[in-house]
Amino acid sequence: MKHPSKRQALQLGLAAVAAATLALGAGNALAQGAKLKVGLMLPYTGTFAALGTAIENGFRLHVDELGGKLGGREIEYVKVDDESDPAKATDNVNKLIKRDNVDVIVGTVHSGVAMAMAKAAKDSGTLLIVPNAGANAVTGPMCAPNIFRSSFSNWQPGYAMGEALAKRGAKNVVTITWKYAAGDESVGGFKEAFEKGGGKVVKELSLPFPNVEFQALLTEIAALKPDAVYTFFAGGGAVKFVKDYAAAGLKGKIPLVGAGFLTDGTLPAQGADADGLLTALHYADSLDNPKDKAFRTAYAQAFKLQPDVYAVQGYDAAQMLAVGLAATKGDVGKKAEFAAAVQKATIDSPRGKFTIGKSHNPVQDMYLRQVVGGENKVIGIASKALADPGRGCRM
Ligand code: BEZ
User: Which residues line ligand 1 at a C-beta cut-off of 6 Å?
Assistant: First the structure.
């Protein structure tokens, strides 16, 4: 082995002193009861704005249930509106990491933005909990000891819906989605299971995110006359798609199915146009478990709104953070202890209990739901304890 030069040795020594000072600083801050800085990087404008607000509400609800503290530390929130814009994502996440010096980042909704956040978290070692964005890579090739997800991978609801639709005997299906990671990966999961079950995806249609000019694509679907249409849309785009599908005369003629985001948090705006739609997701409006009942009552009381899957994922992001910080007594620097505690936990979620897989993604039931009377009613389990195929990462 080559010995370091005097200059290199000096540099190494200085780096070690700096690291020790930082660690000591963090220790002192903890000892002096410093607040835990939580960076919320979420969309507060654009087609996913309501999703961002629901996530924040859910997160705050659980923190409030714990008396406003996690791991014994009071919380200070710092917020960034990421606008669901991947082009601004690196700058936005670096504001939280470098300018605001947050202890943990909670975000975001959009898969493209989340990938930039995961890279920054991996490079800097900042703790990141993803409360929605399903980008497969985040808990696949990009997974890291300090990155966790409280939601799903895009593959999961797609795969569950593909299995369920194949079992119902559909043969030829057209897919339609936004052309970005979430849409592509949701369709990928659907296609994998649907074709394994004997069906065929005959055409994959798409439009750029967050475009909502669906007319030409709906005309193409009408001409193709498939047995069913599978879709991934969410938020404002999902509202418009369901309404346009009905207005184009396709409702009742060609069954529309989807990843459950199509009808979650959107039903009041979609009205009767959503009646009967079949979707797969890890949450529903009619779950009969005590945790969900208590959660729904508390959420409605606090925010004068009905919760949805996004609120649940925000709530569970806080639950996961609370588990990790309880194990480290509030010290985010103890990454191995934090990860070990979260990985062996069972999270008592409003969606039903779930565990965290080795890639830090939930292992969870996927419900088959149908819209009845303005609610996503459970009509079966599409996939039991579905784990993402991510092979796990070396910690
Ligand atoms: C995503 O970009 O990963 C996503 C956005 C909204 C709902 C679900 C997934």
Answer: 48, 109-111, 132-135, 154, 182, 234, 261
